[in-house]
Amino acid sequence: MQHGVDPYPMEVDHEDINSLNNSIGNLRLGGRVLQGQNRGTRNDNTSGVKGVGWHKGASKWMAYIKVEDKIKHLGYYVTIKEAAEARNAAVREYWPEEVWAANLIDLDSLPDCEIIPPTAR
């Protein structure tokens, strides 16, 4: 739009996921798949880590990713860090590099030990 061209059917995407940052350098064209991949953590996420949740039945952390509108199960893990590592590997395998920054989990911020969420006790 800045250059006088309507991008339809493409959509404008914010690279840094901040919808208030409308600087030209932060905007790019993308389809619905890119829009869906370039999102922050959902507000109903209880683990605090995108694509990782606690599975009560297995009493382990579960990693998952959405690929082509289907949830792909990546396995069960003893630690949240192991589940996050599996999620990061799947992001690199299934999604384009331009969405990696918004989806890769900072593994250094996660504990190495087994932690059971308070809601699962």
How would you describe what is shown here?
- The protein is α+β, with helices and mostly antiparallel strands.
- The protein has one domain (11-120).
- Helices cover 21% and strands 23% of the residues.
- The chain contains 3 helices and 5 strands.
- It has helices at 32-37, 80-94, 100-103; strands at 11-14, 27-30, 52-55, 60-67, 70-77.
- Strands 3-4-5 form a 3-stranded antiparallel β-sheet, with helices on one face. Strands 1-2 form a two-stranded antiparallel ribbon.
- Strand 3 and strand 4 form a beta hairpin.
- It starts with 10 loop residues before the first strand and ends in an 18-residue tail after the last helix.
Q: Structural class given helices, strands, pairing?
A: alpha+beta
* Major β-sheet profile: 3 strands, antiparallel
**Adjacency order of strands in the biggest sheet:** 3-4-5
H/E element sequence: EEHEEEHH
Structural domain count: 1
**Total count of strands:** 5
Uncertain segments: none
What key attributes describe this structure?
121 residues; alpha+beta; 3-stranded antiparallel beta sheet; two-stranded antiparallel ribbon
Short description:
The protein is an alpha+beta fold and 121 residues long.
